[in-house]
Design brief:
This protein is α+β, with helices and mostly antiparallel strands. Helix content is 31%, strand content 28%. The strands form six sheets. It has a six-stranded antiparallel beta sheet with strand order 7-6-11-10-9-8.
Length: 795
Amino acid sequence: MEGLPFTPPAGADEDGHLGPPPAAFALLAADGVLVGWSREAEALLGYPAAQVLGRRAADLLVTPRDGPAERPPDQRLRLDGTRGAVVDVRHRSGDTVRVAVTLHPLTPASDGDPTGRAPSAVLMATELEGLRWWETRQAMLQGLVTQSPVTLSIYGPGARLLWANASSVRELGGDLAASLGRSMTELFPGDVLTTQHLAPPEEFVQQILETGEPVIDVRFRGRAPADPRRERVWSSSYFRLLDGRGEPVGVCEQSIDVTGHYRAQQRLALLAEAGARIGATLDPSGTAAELAKTAVPEYADAVLVDVAAEVLEGEEPKPATAWDLVRVADSDGEPARVGERVAYPAGSSQAESLAGGRSTADAAVAPTRLYVPLIVRGTPLGLVTFVRGDDSEPFDDGDRSVAEELASRTAVCIDNARRYRRERTAAFMLQRSLLPRSLPELSAVEAASRYLPADSHLGAGGDWFDVIPLSGARVGLVVGDVVGHGLGAAATMGRLRAMVHTLAELDLAPDELLARLNDQVGKDASDQNGKDGEGSGAVGATCVYGIYDPASRKSTWAAAGHLPPAVMQPHGPVSFLRLPPGAPLGVGRLPYEGVEVELAEGSLVVLFTDGLVEARGKGAEVGLDRLAAVLGEQRGSSSDRLCAQIVAELASDQVQDDATLLVVRTRALGARQVATWELPSDPALVARARAMAAEQLERWGLDDLAFTTELVVSELVTNAIRHASGPIGLRLIRDRSLICEVSDSQHTSPHARYAGSDEEGGRGLFMVAQLTEHWGTRYMPTGKTIWAEQALPVP
């Protein structure tokens, strides 16, 4: 400090992180004249010592222009004691600096002040904003230590506790001294719930000390010393602490209690599993067993399921005051009790639950029990008892809601089994509802169909057919037959039809589609056999699937144990496609083979199930010959008329199996509807591709789509050139929509994504997806085709 010797207080932190902001110091005489000026004061206000020493400190204060001569109370400095204030001080540059000041009087010298300039007070000033920021950080640190609900602990080598904040001390039972030096495993024994593999705490704490790499969101399940009876879950994160020299001093653990969130996740997962598992069979005992398997051990330690005897016999449950039930599931380790009669007398907790139609808890007994009635349409069918042992927590309101949901789903499944005999007719209605009600109108084919059910005593069958619109104006044609009859066959048929639709939308080749369908059917059969020990009766479905392209007039076919389609070219004889038979779906894993056939415009293709040609007492060869004869006689008939004639000739003897018939007459897209170009893999030709597409749209009178199509062509051709080699194929198809296709020799799978704001590329497919109604990719042995479809303008 200039003027008089003065040493600023120690402890100022110059790094600006946790220490207080630098303070300026000045010495004042008794009359308020400045007699000392520190370097920090010069840095704060810009005045060197020579310009301020000998002046009154009050001269540096900012005075309001139109205010009274006397400054406001917070702007006055008095020397009658230590005092803090916020004042505005004039900077040397003319600016105003708001500072916090504190005045500390000094003890006068014993020999007096002959000069009249002895220091009488020390004035300390700090920029107000910096001071408040430092005070805020100090309050934050103090809050973390004393008030934060987040537990903070510091562990040293061996994961031994070095320090803990107030929240952590409460978790430790309130005695920090007794916990210091103990390992994390000793303090909080439990399990690590994270999916990633973690070493024991002692090892990964040491690893963090050595590497400095933090570990985020480790889930622990255990019991805190402060509450050892309650199991809890914490989310913990760890990071290394360094001292002023940059040396590691420990690892900080910050943890929050996520028990409620974890249990909510468990409950949701349990309900999701229940939705997939409960009700897989139409057997009440099997459904009850699935409930027990779902709930134990994640939700309860044991589950007992009792169902009214009349429900098991398929009858409506009868109201009663003394409930006569049958034990159908018992996960308590005593399977011999399954099948026994269980009577709950009036006044018991079980009887009250059944009579009131609500869950009741019995916490007075050990273990804790929760009784939940199985209710459908307000009528109890039985009772589920959930049991938790002494080491488990009692059921709370959230647990009760989950139990009621599980019981509700189980009750519906049991009621479905009860009503099965009365609702066989519903199986036929279900089968009909799963079949297409009408066939789509397409440019590729003219289609008609017939479905003939078998005699009603055989139950619903599993035949199905479909005409599926595909990309590029193509069409998928399928006929299938599930072995067997009944609800299982009808349900399997629905699943297969849905799977074929899904796989067809992926633009898979027929042989690959059947291979994937076969894998799924085999998996379903394995799951079904593993659950009830019996086959589903629907394994061994047959199917034939074909794709027809009206632009090239080429078709591709594959069969899975199914009779081949009949084909009749416009001026040719009737023949049956020579398809490799393939194994029925779900029977084997042999590969399927596809066959390509070119079909002239106006060709007839007839797909059918064996029920149409295998009449009672006659082989399939006789039926195939009769089918060929009808086709030859009715060559010029429409598809619908031909369907009616085939049914009239072949289905009169059909009584053993369902019969399905699908007749299509092919159409072709002429040169006026298709434009094709082959481009070399040269980026310079992208502009040429846009121009050719625009010219073609102008010839088609689709100028309104030119701008969008040029963008689509540009993006797809650019992607193909960038990621593929060899020639690029460009095709425009004017059908019921405008289709743009770009083909290349690569099999890589493109995908639309959100590009970052600093990325130059990566938006092509995203733009295509936004500009068009549909887009996708289909694969061929020679590469892939990316297509995009736009709606035609309304005339």
